[in-house]
TrEMBL record:
Membrane topology: Multi-pass membrane protein
UniProtKB keywords: Endoplasmic reticulum, Glycosyltransferase, GPI-anchor biosynthesis, Membrane, Transferase, Transmembrane, Transmembrane helix
Stated family: Belongs to the PIGV family.
Primary location: endoplasmic reticulum
GO terms (BP aspect): GPI anchor biosynthetic process
Organism: Aegilops tauschii subsp. strangulata
Gene Ontology cellular component annotations, sorted alphabetically: endoplasmic reticulum membrane; mannosyltransferase complex
Molecular function in Gene Ontology: alpha-1,6-mannosyltransferase activity; GPI mannosyltransferase activity
Entry protein name: GPI mannosyltransferase 2
Top-level division of the source organism's lineage: Eukaryota
Amino acid sequence: MLGYRAVLVISGHVLNNVAFVAAAAYFYRLSVLILKDSGAAYRASVLFCFNPASVFYSSLYSESLYALFSLGGLFYLFSGARTVAMIMLALSGSARSNGALNAGYICFEALLQAYDAAIQKKRPMALVTGFLRSTFVFLPFFAFQAYGYLNICVHGDTDELRPWCKAKLPLLYSFIQSHYWGVGFLRYFQVKQLPNFLLASPALSLAVYSIVHYTKLLHQLFQSTSIHEQIIAIVDGRLVEAHESSDVATVLKSEISTGLHNKKQGNTEVKKRKSVAASAASAASLDGNTSTGRIVGDNKDECPLLVLPFILHLTFMTFTAFFVMHVQVSTRFLSASPPIYWAASRILAPARGGSCKRWGYFIIVYFVAYILLGSLLFPNFYPFT
């Protein structure tokens, strides 16, 4: 009745909007897991739902699927369900090429596990499994490059090979970006591109603020507490969370599938470490933190070690967006990065006033204005992002 094209359009819109709602739910759960602050997590999630690149999460673009698989994968990774996380992060790389960068989170988590194993004088098998899982996340990207090579370079119709086919590492992706899109280091630094730099300046400014803010907090964290204590706290705290969480079945199944622990020895060790972590949790509870919904502490500017890989990821993406890519893409490119919304939610915290309150108004105006601007420019093929 509608026609094939119309059905495709409707299906795409339904799929993307459902995926976005699920991504927002995962964003909230991930934020609670990392920040240990339900209030900040809620504010950040609301900001994510009304982010400046919202038009791409509702239209026929791959942003919603990327956000769903990326945020969902990170939630399961830091919850301990590593197999589920590996699959979802690999799927994020299928939705967008930069999803392959999510392998870095698996490497970070593997390093934590390897350090913990070394302390307990066990074999650091987490490094091996972490490497294998990271490789799996890269598979969709390399699979598509192989697909392009076979179709164009091996089974192509033209007699003369394309230049990228003759390269030592024939990557279709980098050739298209450079040859057809003019993507390259400082190649976009032209006077005529100043309007696009202005268009991207709010997103880049907020990203830089997030990086600087959390870098300062991490520096304070490393000065006040040793890295050893932080890693042990993360591993031990996860045992308590897995024990008390509604997702305990998922976490335990993932642990069994990875074969990281012997059953008898593992039970003894888990009980021992749970008791240590539970004592720390009880101490925090006595300080009145649980009544406010905050687990980390009363200090609004506390920062857990698990924020580190998010900041490293955001730093790399911000650098790439500003110096290498078409800069106006920054608004969309950085839109699924949690630290941006975490930092913005801090500015919008009810207890803050003065300059923070003014910057909070600016953030709200920026988000709303870009939703409206994107809804006008993007459907009419203007270079919004």
